[in-house]
Specification:
Elements lengths: L22 H4 L22 H27 L6 E8 L5 H7 L9 E5 L14 H4 L8 E5 L4 H8 L5 H20 L2 E9 L2 H13 L9 H7 L2 H15 L6 E5 L3 H19 L10 H12 L4 H21 L12
Parallel strand pairs: 1-3, 1-4, 2-3, 4-5
Helix pairs in contact: 2-10, 5-6, 5-9
């Protein structure tokens, strides 16, 4: 039976220090699209950067606990839910920082990361969602898409990589696909990190100014900046066509990296708290196993016994050497 769409709208996580309103409420995209978002703002959060750092650290503890509970249930075959974080943004908006500072703080065993690049020749032989479905998170896992199927209606539209009628078809295909994913038990958190054009230029220039950042710069990023307005229009169309109650879009002001990371963490916390994973119940008699284990502790450890014997022998040899004589068990030299 399909599960109802999960609802974090209007709810705050239990670890929302500093938040004056639920992140899912103040960050959900509106009909105004990107025009209604100030990339420098920090909606819903009343603190400054130092407060945000403290809130992020506190939230990381809570996120790790919830993620471990979810993963533990998968380890015993009881998990029926997962979380998928979809990250979209213009270049240098901070997707990597989200992965490192938010998702990177939990047990990597319970995380599945997929970074989608240009499709391979094999992938081009299939529908655009074919490679996406293969990387959906397993039950009990947090999946992260660093870019996603939305590239096929963003750069695909801006760069005319597919006919207009195919782009139109993809919007509806995405809505149907995500509904099916949500119905299967996956909470989808779709995030667009919104930076200003000036902030992007500053960050790209920093990559050129610092040799250790050169590897992160792609000359193609400059070419894409020339199409900024086209990309903003493409994003607004994505929001209008694919933001649903089952899988809404959240636009996060990202000129302040600390706020963007905190906001994504708050959305993930709300999603995991909606799942409310509990520790698995032991399928064995805990007290009986406790007694069996205690009984094994009464037996001497052979390794410790050998180490003790070697220590005593070494002591005898050292004492004999110090007195100028040899131990009885050692033959005298010829």
């Amino acid at each position: 039976m399909p599960r109802p769409a999960w609802g974090i709208m209007g709810t705050m996580s239990q670890h929302s220090a500093g938040w004056t309103a639920p992140a899912a409420e103040v960050l959900r995209v509106t009909s105004a699209g990107l025009a209604g978002v100030d990339p420098d703002s920090t909606p819903g959060y009343q603190g400054q950067k130092s407060d945000g750092a403290a809130s992020l650290a506190d939230g990381l503890v809570a996120l790790g606990d919830l993620q471990e509970r979810l993963f533990a249930r998968s380890a015993v075959g009881e998990a029926q839910a997962s979380v998928l974080l979809v990250l979209q943004a213009m270049d240098s908006a901070g997707k990597g920082g989200i992965v490192r500072h938010v998702v990177g703080g939990v047990d990597p065993q319970g995380v599945e990361l997929a970074a989608f690049k240009a499709p391979t020749s094999e992938e081009l032989q299939h529908d655009f969602l074919w490679r996406i479905e293969k990387r959906l998170p397993a039950e009990g896992k947090i999946g992260v898409f660093d870019r996603s199927h939305y590239e096929d209606v963003l750069i695909g539209r801006v760069r005319s990589l597919a006919p207009a009628e195919e782009i139109e078809r993809r919007y509806d295909a995405i809505v149907e696909f995500e509904k099916r994913v949500v119905d299967s038990g996956t909470r989808i958190v779709k995030v667009m990190l919104d930076i200003s054009r000036d902030e992007q230029k500053k960050r790209l220039m920093e990559r050129l100014d610092r040799p250790e950042k050169h590897w992160k710069f792609n000359p193609g990023d400059t070419d894409e900046r020339l199409l900024w307005d086209d990309y903003m229009a493409a994003y607004d169309t994505v929001f209008a066509r694919t933001s649903t109650d089952a899988a809404p879009w959240y636009v996060i002001p990202a000129n302040r990296k600390w706020y963007a990371r905190l906001a994504v963490q708050e959305l993930l916390l709300a999603a995991l708290e909606d799942i409310d994973p509990q520790w698995p119940v032991a399928d064995y008699d805990v007290e009986a196993e406790r007694k069996r284990l205690a009984a094994t502790c009464a037996d001497p450890d052979p390794r410790q016994a050998r180490a003790s014997t070697m220590g005593r022998n070494f002591t005898r040899v050292s004492s004999s050497s110090a007195s100028g004589s040899l131990p009885a068990t050692m033959p005298a030299p010829a």
